[in-house]
Design brief:
45% helix, SDR_fam, KR_dom, SDR family oxidoreductase, Rossmann fold, 9 helices, seven-stranded parallel sheet, single chain, alpha/beta, oxidoreductase
């Protein structure tokens, strides 16, 4: 993946990405590395092989830190380790999520708590943890990955869409609270991105055809299509943009 634009201020930036070793997260990790950033990423599955691949392809090895982001103590420790290695985190990408399908009638309290912990709680505590370092550095950028699912009112995963909507509220409140410190907080809402997970678990020819009918642009979205918008939100090119939601979905939903 070659960068379509270069953002000089991202060179040597300390970037922290949750779920940065697969799917959209892997594309984001590569995108920041190709800008010359110092990237740390966390996930539960082993990301050492991906880190080695990125080193071979970009010349920069990302720091992989094993972490279950629902364990707030482990998440805080991971941010501390990334800051020790690369300097205070000045770009946080809350990317990790789980859009597992579920029926309202089948949801237990434990399932609710787990789904919210992955899709919303971890984003809050990751942001809380990086704020002191960003403040000391004179500013920073937080990008919360949401989804167009809640905008469409999609059925089949109500806790996930609830968390998506909650992330937008979190984005706006943190933007207001920490704007005076030069910290920008924005959301990015992808459409249906054809990751390996999506194709293996939920993409069907009929479902994809129906979704493409709703898109203005008649091409499927790939993880790489989310990189440009994320880099823009992380860089000084968007220096006066905060509290906003950027949609990259091929033209399914209309905002504004």
């Amino acid at each position: 993946m070659k960068p379509s634009a270069i953002y000089p201020d991202l060179k040597d930036a300390s970037v922290f990405i949750t779920g940065g070793g697969s799917g959209i997260g892997a594309a984001l990790t590569e995108g920041f590395l190709r800008q010359g950033a110092r990237v740390a990423f966390v996930q539960r599955s082993d990301g050492a092989g991906f880190a080695g691949q990125m080193e071979a392809e970009t010349g920069i090895r990302p720091l992989f830190i094993p972490c279950d982001i629902t364990d707030t103590g482990a998440l805080k420790a991971a941010v501390a380790a990334a800051s020790e290695a690369h300097g205070p985190v000045t770009v946080l990408v809350n990317n990790a999520a789980n859009d597992q399908r579920h029926a309202t009638e089948d949801v237990s309290e434990d399932y609710w708590d787990r789904a919210i912990a992955i899709n919303l709680k971890a984003c809050f505590f990751a942001a809380q943890t990086v704020l002191p370092g960003m403040r000391a550095a004179g500013g920073g950028a937080i990008i919360n990955m949401t989804s167009i699912s809640y905008m469409m009112g999609n059925a089949g995963y109500p806790i996930y869409t609830t968390a998506n909507s909650g992330l937008n509220g979190l984005t706006r409140s943190l933007a207001r609270e920490f704007g005076p410190d030069g910290i920008r907080v924005n959301a990015l809402a992808p459409g249906w991105v054809m990751t390996d997970k999506q194709k293996a678990m939920w993409v069907t020819p009929e479902g994809l055809a129906t979704h493409l009918d709703r898109q203005c642009l008649k091409e499927t979205l790939a993880p790489e299509d989310i990189v440009g918008g994320t880099l823009f939100l992380a860089s000084s090119a968007s220096r006066m943009m905060t509290g906003q939601a950027l949609v990259i979905d091929g033209g399914v939903v209309v905002t504004g």
